[in-house]
Design brief:
The protein is an alpha+beta fold and 207 residues long. Helix content is 29%, strand content 27%. It contains 6 helices and 9 strands. Strands 1, 2, 3, 4, 5, 6, 7, 8 and 9 form a 9-stranded mixed sheet that branches. A hairpin with a 2-residue loop joins strand 2 and strand 3. The chain is globular. The two termini are 12 Å apart.
Length: 207
Amino acid sequence: MQAIVVDHTNSSFYAEELDQFHFQRHRVYAEELGWVPAVPSRREFDPFDTSDAVFILFMEEGRLIAGSRLIETDRPHLVSEVFPDIFTIAPIIRSRAVVEWTRGFVIPERRGDIRLLAQCCAAVMEYCIEHGYSQIGGIQDTKWLALWRKMRWNVRIHGEAVMMGEDPWLPAYFDVSQEAMANARVFGRLSSSILVDSRRLNAPKVA
């Protein structure tokens, strides 16, 4: 598996992978969770898919199996614009050093693969370390709490859980650290990085 980093500077080289990402987002957020209306194109977009967004696309043999979106919290982002009222324990964070992690998913066929979930977490944490972020988080499904505890991530809860559809969600942020990345790699049985960032290589695409 590869975790491919895509933003507005290299998105034209990853058009097919991004199309898979938005299709799978529609499956999850429109068809499964009902957070957004279903559309005929079966591609889900929202107001935060801007030039500020970074997407991490988890690809396996040419197929997208998971994805995430990251946005620095000093910019408009999902919780600041849509869910500010859920911050009942600690205030909402707005900082260039803290990145929001949203629109994350694993395709339904692979969702029970805990090893895969840990590998995704390891890649996201690695990206945050490389870019000097201190925390990552946002509105999170509470069922992930068990995995975070197993990986010994330092979790900071900013609000009480609220029901969204049939599941409880809450605002939570995680400290970015080498230890957190290492623990996720161990749990995911990764011996090395899976992060692919062609922007660092000044190259259009990695085969």
